[in-house]
Amino acid sequence: MNTVKQVWVWAEHYRGSVNPAVLGLLGKARELAHEIDGGSVGVVLAGADSKNITDELFNYGADFIYLADDTSVNLSDTESCARLVAELARQYQPEIVLWGATGPGKEIAARTAVRLNTGLTAHCIALDIVEIDGRKQLAASVSGWGGSAVIRITCPKQRPQMVTVKAGIFTSVRPEKRTGKIIHVKITQEPARLETIEVIEATASAGSLEQAEVVVAAGWGMNSLGGIAQAEELANLLGGSVGGTRPAVDAGWISHDRMIGQSGISVAPRLLITLGVSGAAQFASTVTGAKFILAIDKNPDAPIFEMADLGIAGDLQEILPRLITKIRAVKGKSWTDISKE
Ligand SMILES: Cc1cc2nc3c(=O)[nH]c(=O)nc-3n(C[C@H](O)[C@H](O)[C@H](O)COP(=O)(O)OP(=O)(O)OC[C@H]3O[C@@H](n4cnc5c(N)ncnc54)[C@H](O)[C@@H]3O)c2cc1C
What we know:
By secondary structure, this protein is of the alpha/beta class. It has 10 helices and 17 strands. Strand 15, helix 7 and strand 16 (292-297) form a beta-alpha-beta unit. Helix 3 (78-92) crosses helix 4 and helix 5 packs parallel to helix 9 (316-330). Flavin-adenine dinucleotide is lined by residues 146, 219-221, 224, 245-248, 259, 261-264, 276-278, 280, 282-283, 297-299, 302, 315-317.
């Protein structure tokens, strides 16, 4: 299949704000487009309020925006979004399509890959262009074998080459005042198989984990407290966000898109507090960017203490309520007042 040299990014946005992951992807898309011989960067943007964010997307690196600003486009209807990208890809034939590995991003990417009968490499941690048999190919790296190996995957025959990228991997370039071309497109209407019943806004403790300065990671040890209510309380007090380990997801305490680890997201906050997290390699390898780690676990030999800056070996049932009470008491006070107490 002959393709034009375009690298596309799916522009996820909500309430007029572009998902920060998209801005990071745009910078990477520019690099990849350059490496595939002067290619250009296209963005697929849909939804009623999308017109207001086109300037931002150009400034961060888009050359073209395929804009479906139809009020009928429902961004939580991942099937319609996939139909849109697939139809556009058939028409314009991009070389590469990048998606943030967000909840909707993962779903739309997978649906699009099936429609286009192409490959999709998920949860990538690096992207490069390599030459194989005289043809430039995207080499997508993923973490494997419990974080002890990096596996590079190519999609040599099918096009477009599609990947989802883990959050926090590519930081956005500094925006420049740029303009580009808007191509107005229409989404083909088909009877919807999915219906949005209700949109529930995230609470403060469920804010973006990738952007959070304070992250509270809940592990299986929170089971002794009957769930993560106190982890959420701690995060709210510190203006942070709550994520967790796989067992915390499996227990239904947090959603899958807030799972920290090899199969989830990487975090790099100023402060990471782990509560009953043993520190398995699949978790630990993705929190190394945290500036300070406070770990609380009842097992003094838990591997998490090897990477913690401050460790408390003790029972969460006793420590966590005391920590919350103490933080609540000192909140808003100056260090001088606190040291006098
Ligand atoms: C291919 C693969 C991919 C994976 N991907 C991920 C991933 O992305 N993310 C992820 O998290 N895991 C992942 N895992 C699973 C991972 O190996 C671990 O099983 C998981 O991280 C353990 O989670 P945990 O620390 O919450 O639970 P556990 O390992 O069971 O640890 C619970 C901790 O709580 C402590 N505890 C218990 N009760 C208390 C108490 N009352 N007070 C204080 N401490 C207490 C215990 O001492 C223990 O250290 C993956 C595994 C595989 C094989």
